[in-house]
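From the shared-data thread, chain only:
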Amino acid sequence: CGGSVNSATRSGAVGRSAGARDDRPQRRLRGGSGGRLGGTTVTMEDVWEVSADSRIASFAGRLYGRVTGNSHRGGCRTLPTLEAMGHVPISHAVNAVALCNRFLDKHGVEVPRLAFAPVLRTFVRRNIASEAARNAVEFDGGGTEESERPHRRRQSPEAAPRKSVLLHLRPVPGAQAAACVRSVDEDIIRVSRDTHPVRLGGLILSRWPSLEAGLEGSAITVQAMGPRSIETMVKSLAIAWEKAARAYEADISEAGFGCLPSHLRLTGGPAGGRGGG
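Structure, as tokens:
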């Protein structure tokens, strides 16, 4: 993950039934491309794109300003959605939210922490300049009926389907976030770069009903270290979240579960010991 090699990123799945919902008025997010994303649409002006060149600390600072500003104003501003494509940008996005939560820890339970609802997005990003070239139909010479049939349109690399991850941010009350952090050492699912996202997503989803019903703990904890492992973790959570959210017809802020990211310092680090950090 970003920062020290002696830290790992972990995400606890926070149950909606446990109160991880935002009760303030929400405006519905609509998609700029017209597509539905996991049953919900998103406006591009609410999306912050995270790239491989993005600075984690800079994004964390912007998120920190948004959360603390909301607290001072009584929660009137909508939280953004982070979009990332590729293992490094996805890792940057998750680490930025985890770092923001570290910044917020100094405020105690009075200020909420940030969780995210992960959604996998498939889209086509078209290059307007080459639109005419992509729509051109080629014909063979010779005048025969077979040769006059247009060839199948070739798909330009600019119009190839692409996949990204959307992290819909949502606030979690500080007291609830603290309770989740205290319970994470009981049962941790560790992710490697070879972990299969679909299988891991199925494992997370299998534990979700018991957690939502209050029969098991307060969080499902998933731990990953390194960009590829973090990407696998997020995609697995997105697979589980989509299935868990299908039962809800309300806004995205109320559907499924929220993933509360935090940094974990591993044994042997400069701080000499293990703890949330």
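The chain has a mean pLDDT of 73.
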